[in-house]
Amino acid sequence: MTRARRTSIAALFAAALAAVSAAVATAATEDVARGQSGAQLTLPAGWSKLTPAGDRTDDPRTLLVIGTDGARAIDSPCLVTSYRVPVDGAVVVVVGWREPVGGTSFLPLSGLELRRGTFKCYTGRGAVARVTRRDRDFQVNVLVGDKADAATIDAALDAARSFALAPRV
Asked: Does the model's pTM come out above 0.85?
C-alpha cells in the first residue's frame, strides 16, 4: 500500500471518527422532557417543562407540557388551551387517553401545520396531531403566539414531532 493511500485512509477514518463524536456529543446535550405515562419531547434550547393545568376530565388527561419563557398554566374550560402563550412564544401540550379512541391516522406528526381556529378556546395559531404508540392514543398540540419568530415556530413544531414514549425498562 502506498504512503499516499495510507494517509488518505487515515484521514478518512479520522473524519468519520470526528463526525461520530460530534453526533454523540449533540445527542448527549439534547434535553428531553418526560411526563406521565412515559410521554417525552425533545426540549428546545431555552424552553422548559411546565406544570400541567388541572385536568377537568379523567380521560383524556394532560401528560406533558413544555413552553418558552413566560408560558404557564391558566384557568380555562378547555383542556389543551389551558396555558398562557407569550405573544412571541409557544407551548406544546401532550394529552393521552386510557382507552383507544381511534381515528389517529389522519393527523400524523409529519403533517403538523399552523392554522388559526385549530382550537376552540384559542384564537392564535395552532397545530394538532393524533398518534398511537403502544396501543394508546395521544394528541400532540402546538400553540404559537402571534409575534413568534420563525425560529420559535420551528422549535415548537420540531419539539412536537419529537414525541415518543420513554423506552420500557
From this structure: no
